Amino acid sequence: VIITEVMASNSHTLADEDGDFPDWLELRNNMDIPVDLTGYMLSDNREDPARWVFPQVILQPGEYLVVFASGKDRRDPTANLHANFRINKQEDEIILTSAGGYICDIVNIDNLPTDVSYGRDLLLPDRWLYFVAATPGAENSTYGFTSLDFTQEVLASPVHITELLASNSYILADEDGAYPDWIEIHNHSNNPVDLSGYSLSDDQDEPFKWIFPEIIIQPDEYLLIFASSKDTREPAGNLHANFNIN
Question: d(Cα 137, Cα 127) in Å, to the nearest integer?
């Protein structure tokens, strides 16, 4: 059993049964037989590996399991599991230890942004990536970044911003008859691109200010997003970001 993904600051990615958005981590059974997690331990302090102990949970071959790091300490195996600690997004480590005291996995966290997960590369499991579109409870199949300086990889992106209007007085009206600012993006690749988890922002320090809904942009297709502050994410209608352009 290994740790496959961690989110240390969760504002909207995954809610728990109380409607809260706590930190979380994901485990996977890499074996081809079931594993009984009874007595396995999680901790954020290697000097205290038994800080939170699993109840009787059977993890099937290839199965994923999400544990909220909420501080709520809930161990009902029929419900969501909650560890009794939270994850420090600035600097922390998560230790998974077997019931026999064997360290199964350790993951180090360092300045992890809000709603960005840190997870294993699906094709190269020993390599860890930053995921803008997290996949709690499922394989890390979305596009991941090798560093937090996402601009280093921008040229490799199949989608670019191609046009914007920062003061729209008459050129294009939205569905309410208003004339908000707008941004146009274009898929210049030969393949469809799922924009789920892509984001727009007017602040480099907050790159995930507005997250796209589940929408596919086809090869050579253009897509317009109003920068109106209306924050509308209905894929079948106009898209409105939650900010205006200065």
Answer: 19
